Amino acid sequence: MNIKSLLLGSAAALAAVSGAHAADAIVAAEPEALEYVRVCDAFGTGYFYIPGTETCLKIGGYVRTQIKYDEDAFGAKDRFNDDKQYGDYDAQTKGYLTIEAKSDTEFGALTGYINLEANDTKDTLLDGAWINIAGFDVGYFYNWWDDGIAGETDSIGSEETLQNSIRYTYEGGPVILGVAVEELASTNVKSNDDVGVSGKLGYTLGGVSANLIGSYDFNVDEAAFRAIVTADVGPGSLAVAGIYATDPSYYWSKSEWAVAASYAIKATDKLTITPGAQYFGNVKFNSNIDAWKAGVTAQYQITTGLKTLATVNYYDENNDAGPDSEKWTGFLRLQRDF
Questions:
Q1: H or E segment and range at residue 151
Q2: Choosing a second label site near 77 at 20 to 30 A (CA), which of 64, 101, 137, 147?
Q3: Residue 314 buriedness (CB in 10 A; 0-12 / 13-18 / 19+)
């Protein structure tokens, strides 16, 4: 018997005596399979599946910094005599984040939206959170008066346009119909925790679209109406808007009536120039005061996701009673979108 046979026999005998079995061997646990993020193309680009679910998520937003000019608009206390001092310029920076979650249901797409805004004053704000399904929007979102026309000259929206609402929108081919019930929680006409209703009629045909909205503020029993028409004309897009209100309300309080227009000219693939103007009739519903505003906005797409925008505007009332009856405003902005 050689040495090799002796060693093998001894090992076999030892295993038999100790009762060792193959099942007793130490086996390393296999690592769990990782579930990688999958692209979701059911709702367009930019969506991905939340791991372990059939819900698609999209994250976007922007980072914006700008220098704003507004004559004698920015106040600060003098550190020596505690008097209020006014300046013309103010640097501002803001971050904006949008989160959108979608999934298919028997009622169509179910969507949840969350918009968050943070600025250099260290404020973080909820700028919208709502649910959309089967044409209904329910939650905290901007109303139709927040929509405007091209450029940064017009002022055709409410002082406040973000509130808790329930809204239904029907889209049938070129026609859009909508109705909304809105909580008017705070306004400059002292409406508090009141209710308003709005209706919308829209129509699009070719390069022309028209939208009419009407709103009623139950707190002051007043109504406001606005129409916007846009059309592709020549090298750009022409927009015209008109507003009429029976008296000041949550929805409109700047003037009894107003008209505005802008023309967005696509000068190059990257440069858009938009002159604009607006006329206010019976400012603050005072028949002795009218006003007009004119300006121009230029936007340049530096590269994908990065653009700059500059605007300058002049406002003038037909009286010299107040400090804001004649003034220049504007800003220079740099924005990174993602």
A1: none
A2: 64
A3: middle
Token pair 């367009």 is found at 44
Rounded distance between C-alpha atoms, residue 282 and residue 289, angstroms: 5
pLDDT of residue 16: 47
Taking the CB of residue 291, how many other CB atoms lie within 10 A of it? 22
CB 198 within 8 A of CB 179: yes
* Full-model pTM: 0.82
**25 token code pair:** 């061997």
d(CA 84, CA 61): 36
Query: What 3-state class would DSSP assign to 300?
Result: strand
Distance of alpha carbon 149 from alpha carbon 238, whole angstroms: 9
Q: Which residue has the tokens 């939206």?
A: 113
Under DSSP, is residue 234 helix (H, G, I), strand (E, B) or coil? coil
Regions of the chain with pLDDT less than 70: 1-35, 74-86, 186-193, 320-324
**Nearby residues of 240 by Cβ (< 8 Å), 6 or more positions away:** 149, 228, 229, 230, 259, 260, 261
